[in-house]
Amino acid sequence: MIVQAEPLRIQTQEERIQELLRTVSASRLNCWLGCRLKFYFRYVLRIKRSPTPAKYIGSIVHRVLQYWNLSRWRKLPILTESIQCQFEEHWLNEQDEKPVLWEDGEETECKGTAWSLLQTYFRDTPIQLDETPEAVEVSVEADLKEHGLPRLIGIIDLVRQGGRIVDFKTTGQTPNQEKAGHLNETQLSCYSVLYREATGKRESGLELHHLVKLKTPKLVVQPLDPMTEGQQTRLFHIMESYQRGLDQQDWIPSPNVMSCSGCEYFNECRKWN
């Protein structure tokens, strides 16, 4: 007897919204704060876009740094040849899953930039090879129902010895030390909440490791204090705003020169009403 498989049921928009209300992440909150209509296109309609060259560089650098940190965690020998092999492998494999629309000669230039950033990091990093991480790319959740909030989920790049949370960034310009902590506060506060939930203790501090894509790349490390009670309160208020907006299906756009010029949903935004 031949049994015919049932067709896959496509989620409705309402079901997707309910799914988004059950959990929240730092990336969703940052997208929500940046532009609610962009959030709608990305997370509700799930319109897929090819990664930009800049995002692709960031993704590859992140993958290779993950390999470097995992090797230290496992106490494995770290050779330049093995790192470069990982780099070449990820550069090809990532494009199988997420093709990039390169312009003429752009891929070769971007590949060189990515490798230069990694060489700069391994040369200038404050992390010693014999320092064993507490955690690498760990997936964590925090149940916040006692605060009336959705479950917070996330993946922390690196936790150094002593409970110091590290997040890696690639950027096209040297970060402003005064503003960088504020601009990344939502994400870092999420990591602090997740770390405290997972370990039952307070993080000793946070670090932003900025890899700057200049003609001569450089590493800028910014140490930050542990999350304050006020920062946690602000994060929870942002999450409340996220909940209300999704409940009301508030997809109002936030047009501005900086974000709109490089937005992958620019054409959809222009047609939206």
Largest sheet: 6 strands, mixed
Rg: 20 Å
Q: How many domains make up the 3D coordinates? A: 1
What's the β-strand tally?
Answer: 6
Which H/E pattern describes the elements? HEHHHHHEEEHHEEHHH
Q: Summed up, what is this model?
A:
Helices cover 51% and strands 16% of the residues. It contains 11 helices and 6 strands.
Descriptive account of the structure:
The structure is a single chain. By secondary structure, this protein is an alpha/beta fold. Helix content is 51%, strand content 16%. Strands 1, 2, 3, 4, 5 and 6 form a 6-stranded mixed beta sheet that branches. A hairpin with an 8-residue loop joins strand 2 and strand 3. The longest helix has 21 residues.
Question: Would you spell out the secondary-structure blueprint of this structure?
Answer:
Blueprint: H1 13-22, E1 23-24, H2 26-34, H3 36-44, H4 53-73, H5 80-97, H6 106-124, E2 135-142, E3 151-160, E4 164-171, H7 177-183, H8 185-199, E5 205-212, E6 218-224, H9 229-248, H10 257-260, H11 266-271
Parallel strand pairs: 1-3, 4-5
Antiparallel strand pairs: 2-3, 3-4, 5-6
Helix pairs in contact: 2-3, 2-8, 4-5, 4-6
